[in-house]
Design brief:
The structure holds two protein chains of two kinds.
Chain A: H1 2-18, H2 20-39, H3 52-71, H4 80-85, H5 91-120, H6 129-154, H7 160-171, H8 173-189, H9 194-220
Chain B: E1 3-14, E2 17-28, E3 32-36, H1 43-51, E4 58-63, H2 70-76, E5 77-80, H3 92-102, H4 108-118, H5 134-145, E6 152-156, H6 164-179, E7 183-187, H7 191-195, E8 200-205, E9 208-213, H8 220-237
Parallel strand pairs in B: 3-7, 3-8, 5-6, 6-7
Antiparallel strand pairs in B: 1-2, 1-4, 8-9
Helix pairs in contact in B: 3-4, 3-5
The chains are: A mainly alpha, B alpha/beta.
C-alpha cells in the first residue's frame, strides 16, 4: 500500500506543478461541448435533451483518453519508468497509484464540463447532482483502470498517441453502454436504471482485477 | 571474501537474437567488477537482468542470502543508469522521498535527509531536478540508488555525458563507496576510469564472455591492450 500512496502523491504533485494534463483535458472537454452545441443545438419539447447523456460521455471519454495518453508519457523522461519498476513491491499497487491519479483528474474534468453542458444545453443538473456524480465516478473508474493498463502498453509503441484510443475504445463499449444508459435514465426520467449500474459495477470490477494482476507483465518487458 | 552475487547459465534471448549467451558469474562482497564490451555486446542486458528489470530466458541468479524472488532481488540492488530515473518536476529531496517510500522504508524523510547530508547535496535538496545540471542530477541519481542501502550497486555508463570535473567527482564517489565495502558492478566504455576502480573485468562480445584479471587492470595502457586482445578472440569465435 505504501507504493500506491507514493505513486499517487508523486503523480498529483507533478500534475499540480505542471498542470499540463489537467489543463489540456479541461480545455479539450470544453471545446467538445462547444462543437457539440454547434453541431446539435438543444431543441425544444419533450425530446430536447435526448442526446445530451451520449454527448456528455463523448466529451468525458475523449478527455479521459487524452489524459491517459500523458499518464505514462511523463514516465519516459529520464527513464523514470525503470526507476518505478525497480521498486520491490507488488506491481499492482504501482498500477493502482497511477490509475487513481488519472481518476482524480478525470473527476475534476467531468465536474467542469458538466457545468459547461448544463449552461450550453439548458439543463438543471442540481437535483440529480449527487447521483450523476456517482454515475460519472463509476464510468471514470472503468475508463481509468483499463485505460491505465493500456496506456502503459501503448507508451512503448512507436505511434502511442494513436495506439491508445485504437486499443482502448473497443474495450470501453460496456463502460460507455452502462454509463450512457444510467445517465439517460437519470437526466431524462429522474431515476437510475439498475441493469445499467450493474453493468458498470461488474465491468469496473473485472477491469480493476485484470489490470492489477497483469500490470507486472506490462511493466517488466 | 564471501560471494554476494552468483549467476549460473544466465542467458537472454529476444526472439531469434541472443542478447546474452549462458553466463556463469560470481561477484564477491565488497568487490568492484567492470563490465566491458563494444555496443550491442549485452552489457546493459546483463545489468537489467541483475537489477530484476528483465526476466532471464534461462539460468539462475542469487544475490545475498539467496532469496529466490525478484522482489528480494530488487531489494538487494541499486541501479544507476545512463538516464537518472528522476522526475524533473519534483525536487531532489522529493525524488529521494519517493524512492524511500517505494522501498517501504520506515522513516523515508529521515533517510532522504541523511543521504542528502552524506552526499553534500543539501544545497540542491529543494531544487527541481529539471533545473539541475547533468552532473548534479547524476549525484542525486546515485543517492536515489543508495536510498535503501543495497548490498549491490549497479552502474550503467555512469560517466556518459558528464563534464571532466563532474566525471572526476563521480569517480571519487565510486571509489569512496568501494572503500566503504559496497559491491559495485560498473558497465562502461571508459577504460581509464575503470582501470583505477575494478580488480576484475568481464568482457562481453555479442553475448559471449571472457575475463580480465590482476595485472591486466593495473593501468589504462595494460587494460586497453588486454581488452583489445580479448575482443579479438571473442569476435573470432562468434
Amino acid at each position: 500500500m505504501n507504493a500506491l500512496w507514493a505513486v499517487l502523491w508523486k503523480d498529483l504533485l507533478s500534475e499540480w506543478r505542471s498542470r499540463d494534463r489537467l489543463v489540456a483535458m479541461v480545455v479539450f472537454a470544453l471545446l467538445v461541448v462547444i462543437v457539440l452545441y454547434l453541431a446539435a443545438p438543444p431543441g425544444t419539447g419533450p425530446d430536447a435533451h435526448r442526446h445530451v447523456p451520449g454527448l456528455l460521455w463523448v466529451a468525458w471519454c475523449f478527455a479521459g483518453i487524452l489524459g491517459l495518453n500523458r499518464a505514462f508519457a511523463v514516465e519516459l523522461e529520464n527513464e523514470a519508468l525503470a526507476g518505478l519498476a525497480l521498486a520491490p513491491v507488488e506491481r499492482g499497487f504501482l498500477f493502482l497509484g497511477k490509475a487513481i491519479a488519472s481518476f482524480v483528474l478525470l473527476l475534476a474534468v467531468q465536474a467542469a464540463s458538466a457545468l459547461a453542458f448544463a449552461l450550453a444545453f439548458d439543463l438543471d443538473l442540481w437535483p440529480v447532482a449527487g447521483r450523476l456524480a456517482g454515475v460519472a465516478a463509476l464510468g471514470a473508474g472503468g475508463l481509468c483502470t483499463i485505460g491505465t493498463l493500456f496506456s502503459a502498453i501503448a507508451v512503448r509503441t512507436q505511434y502511442r498517441e494513436v495506439m491508445l484510443p485504437l486499443l482502448l475504445l473497443p474495450l470501453l463499449v460496456p463502460v460507455l453502454l452502462g454509463a450512457v444508459r444510467a445517465t439517460s435514465g437519470l437526466l431524462l426520467e429522474g431515476s437510475l436504471p439498475w441493469p445499467a449500474l450493474q453493468l458498470l459495477l461488474v465491468t469496473d470490477g473485472v477491469f480493476a482485477i485484470v489490470s492489477f494482476l497483469t500490470f507486472e507483465v506490462v511493466l517488466d518487458e | 571474501m564471501s560471494t554476494l552475487l552468483r549467476a549460473s547459465g544466465l542467458s537472454k534471448r529476444f526472439g531469434p537474437r541472443t542478447a546474452l549467451a549462458p553466463l556463469d558469474l560470481e561477484v564477491g562482497a565488497g568487490e568492484a567488477l567492470a563490465v566491458l564490451g563494444p555496443n550491442g555486446a549485452g552489457k546493459s542486458t546483463l545489468l537489467r537482468l541483475l537489477a530484476g528489470l528483465a526476466r532471464p530466458t534461462a539460468g539462475s541468479l542469487t544475490i545475498g542470502d539467496g532469496a529466490p524472488s525478484r522482489t528480494a532481488q530488487r531489494r538487494a540492488v541499486g541501479l544507476v543508469g545512463h538516464a537518472t530515473f528522476l522526475y524533473p518536476t519534483l525536487t531532489a529531496r522529493e525524488n529521494l522521498l519517493l524512492a524511500a517510500r517505494l522501498h517501504g522504508l520506515s522513516s523515508p524523510a529521515e533517510r532522504a535527509d541523511r543521504l542528502l547530508a552524506e552526499d553534500r547535496l543539501e544545497a540542491l535538496a529543494e531544487r527541481r531536478v529539471g533545473a539541475l545540471s547533468r552532473g548534479q542530477a547524476q549525484r542525486v541519481a546515485i543517492a536515489r540508488a543508495l536510498i535503501h542501502d543495497p548490498a549491490l550497486l549497479l552502474l550503467d555508463e555512469p560517466w556518459t555525458g558528464l563534464d571532466p570535473r563532474a566525471a572526476e567527482r563521480l569517480s571519487e564517489r565510486l571509489a569512496a563507496l568501494h572503500r566503504a565495502g559496497r559491491t559495485l558492478v560498473v558497465v562502461s566504455h571508459d577504460l581509464a576510469r575503470l582501470a583505477g576502480l575494478a580488480a576484475r573485468a568481464l568482457v562481453l562480445v555479442r553475448g559471449r564472455a571472457a575475463w580480465l584479471e590482476g595485472e591486466e587492470l593495473a593501468s589504462e595502457t595494460q587494460l586497453v591492450a588486454a581488452y583489445a586482445t580479448r575482443v579479438g578472440v571473442l569476435e573470432a569465435r562468434a
